[in-house]
Amino acid sequence: MRMYDIILKKRNGYELSKEEIDFFVQNYTKGDIPDYQAAAFLMAVYFQKMNKQETSDLTLSMVNSGDRLDLSGIKGIKVDKHSTGGVGDKTSLVLGPMVAACGVPVAKMSGRGLGHTGGTIDKLESIKGFTVEMNRDSFLGNVNTIGFSIGSQTGNLAPADKKIYSLRDVTATVDNISLIASSIMSKKIASGADAIVLDVKVGSGAFMRNMNDAFELAREMVDIGNSLKRKTIAVISHMDEPLGLAVGNALEVKEAIDTLKGKGPEDLMELCLVLGSHMLILAGKAKDIDEAREMLKNTIENKSALNKFKEFVQAQKGDINAVDNPDENLPVSKYKVDYNAKDEGFIESILADKIGMASLVLGAGRETKESTIDLSVGIVLKRKSGSYVGKGDTIMSIHGNDEDKIKQCIKLIDDAVIITKNQVQAPKLIYGTVV
């Protein structure tokens, strides 16, 4: 078998066999296929696309390129949640404890962020002493004891995906549904969950900017999961403005803790109830959405989710005082500057991508893998789309440590906030579900 023939076959629009896809993935991962041939192959896929069978075969081949996390030592049905990424998305920090408090084990492998703000791992490191570096036995032991753990992704889960994505990133072949779906799902399958709930974001702050593409990606990923014997469901959610109010690592951790205490923003709580309900149903803990929602609400009202989060923090060597009193025990920026409305009217939009870039300018995210994150900085919204504001009313607060960066941030926020004289309806949070 020759790589030349595989490239030619896909370039001419023919379906590739499992063996041909395996040949490409395994040999490219080992370094036996040069980048120039891999790039030609990816461009052929980009233009000719892959059918569902090819996409499933590609995903499984990437899974088989490295290790699989064996979760068989954890009692019960393991359900994972994955978000395609957005601005202010701290859902895992709230959802994990809620679902675990309902008796469903949550064993989550997460990565560090590259972009607007840190990933889940970076956010958690806002808590003094918190560690994500655990051996396999400690990770599984925490899930069995507490019901919930988040650990740092091992470098050898789906290594083919990491290598192929790096090449896609520099050859203009990122934006292809089959390649996106197989990239996401290979890591989820390798992570060992029995069932998967996907949160597919759509809007200015999301990877998928329009509704048709979001639903197409959701369908592709659900089909992959089901074809590989994982019960999979996808929820399409709004990301034209930030989720919740806080954008920035320590600020998002505080908001997650507030939400577990029953004092969080409505949209964050609602998204957790929607995603969590599907997780409970897939795990066999609830018969329908109504029963699942009530179970999840009870974990907030009776503080069992908050207590579960405390156990989780303590087990991973974090300072429990950060949960009891986050204002005094999480990183705090030197400056806090209010951003006020320049006119009166209704907020038509607070563009998530602009707010994300503004938080990146402050230092809340990484422009490159080598960048250092400032865990204390970020933005906290005081109003959201649909709200009425008078001239001079505070729309958001900027938390920063560098006055020049704060000035740059304000310029980006000027482009993010759109105020109109006409009344505006608050945007819809959930657009649909794909099963």
From TrEMBL:
User: What gene, per UniProt, encodes this protein?
Assistant: pdp
Which Gene Ontology BP terms does the record give? pyrimidine nucleobase metabolic process; pyrimidine nucleoside metabolic process
Q: What top-tier enzyme class does this entry carry? A: transferase
Q: Which UniProt keywords apply?
A: Glycosyltransferase, Metal-binding, Transferase
The answer to whether the entry has keyword Cytoplasm is no
Which EC number(s) does the record attach to this protein? 2.4.2.2
- What PROSITE patterns does this protein map onto? THYMID_PHOSPHORYLASE
What does the annotation say about its assembly with partners?
Homodimer.
The record's annotation in Pfam families points to: Glycos_trans_3N, Glycos_transf_3, PYNP_C
Q: Which Gene3D superfamilies match?
A: Nucleoside phosphorylase/phosphoribosyltransferase catalytic domain, Pyrimidine nucleoside phosphorylase-like, C-terminal domain, Transferase, Pyrimidine Nucleoside Phosphorylase, Chain C
* Ranges that cross the membrane: none
> Which reaction(s) does the protein catalyse, per the Swiss-Prot or TrEMBL entry?
uridine + phosphate = alpha-D-ribose 1-phosphate + uracil; thymidine + phosphate = 2-deoxy-alpha-D-ribose 1-phosphate + thymine; 2'-deoxyuridine + phosphate = 2-deoxy-alpha-D-ribose 1-phosphate + uracil
Q: Which residues form the Pyrimidine nucleoside phosphorylase C-terminal domain?
A: 346-420
Protein name, UniProt field: Pyrimidine-nucleoside phosphorylase
- List the GO molecular function terms: 1,4-alpha-oligoglucan phosphorylase activity; deoxyuridine phosphorylase activity; metal ion binding; thymidine phosphorylase activity; uridine phosphorylase activity
What's an example GO cellular component term for this entry? cytosol
Which coenzyme or cofactor does it need? K(+)
Organism for this UniProt entry: Oxobacter pfennigii
Function of the protein = Catalyzes phosphorolysis of the pyrimidine nucleosides uridine, thymidine and 2'-deoxyuridine with the formation of the corresponding pyrimidine base and ribose-1-phosphate.
Q: Coiled coil: which residue ranges?
A: none
Which protein family is it in? Belongs to the thymidine/pyrimidine-nucleoside phosphorylase family.
